[in-house]
Amino acid sequence: MSELPKCPKCSSEFTYEDGALYICPECSHEWAKDGAAEEGTDKKVEVRDAVGNVLNDGDTVTVIKDLKVKGSSSVVKVGTKVKNIRLVDGDHDIDCKIDGIGAMQLKSEFVKKV
């Protein structure tokens, strides 16, 4: 029987194969058998606001357009300050908490860095 590699994320010995992937049952990390996918995960996408400033985790931004909150009658008004943003992958690339509304995701094209 062949030796399976340890998980590169948590160093668990209990990895298993699933098709072209290795999977760690302890931390749910998946990586390609050839290791090519692991090299690509280190690259970070640069997220920019509406005027071209680079955004980072923990930044404070201001909303530049009234935004309707999906599934609610609430509106995020122009000029609303959002503190301590977190950048995530996807179409809505900012994860944040807005006072009076709660946790939500925003698109970087509708905010400006303070």
Automatic annotation (TrEMBL):
Residues 47-114 form the Protein YjdM C-terminal domain. It comes from the Bacteria. SUPFAM superfamilies: Prokaryotic SH3-related domain, Zinc beta-ribbon. InterPro entries: YjdM, YjdM_C, YjdM_N. Residues 3-32 form the Protein YjdM N-terminal domain. Belongs to the YjdM family. This is Alkylphosphonate utilization protein. It comes from Denitratisoma oestradiolicum.
